[in-house]
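=== RUN LOG ===
request id: a7f3
mode: sequence -> structure
chains: 1
length: 165
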Amino acid sequence: MRQVDTCDFCGDAPDGVFEVVPAANPSGPVRLALCDGCKTTLETVTDPLRGADEHDGAATDTDHSGSDPAADSPAAPPTSPQAASSDATGITIEDSTDDAAASRPDGYAQVLRLLENRDDDMPRGDLRALATNAYGLTADSFQTAVDAAIENGDVAADGDGLRRT
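=== RESULT ===
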């Protein structure tokens, strides 16, 4: 058992050990030693989430407000590629995926990552060696990823060098 002599966040003397993730969580409860200030701060984040979980599991037959539960239910989710969804807590999540992102070949993101924060062009052979060794890309998948990145305008080819645009 670990010593509980400091707050897990700030290092001050703790006021107790608190369960910050409920036992109903599939991976089990999470308990932290917290001082009063850190407990209050953490509660401002976790309480709305716990409230949403409790609301989702509540039975609707106890609602005697006279409203029609079917009228209160959310409409069918939008089906456009850039659809926005909102849950019971009012948090909106936008789906910004597009067809170009979905059709990017294997190695595309890795090639772009390797070209990040480089001031000068990187020779294609050096980039190929780095990508194949660091990410296990084949020469064909590397070439396909580079061609797609150039076609999408994410990479510029100047002679034998490649750079991120």
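=== NOTES ===
The beta strands are 16-21, 30-34, 84-86, 92-94, 122-123, 155-158, 161-164.
Residues 108 and 145 are 5 Å apart (CA to CA).
=== END ===
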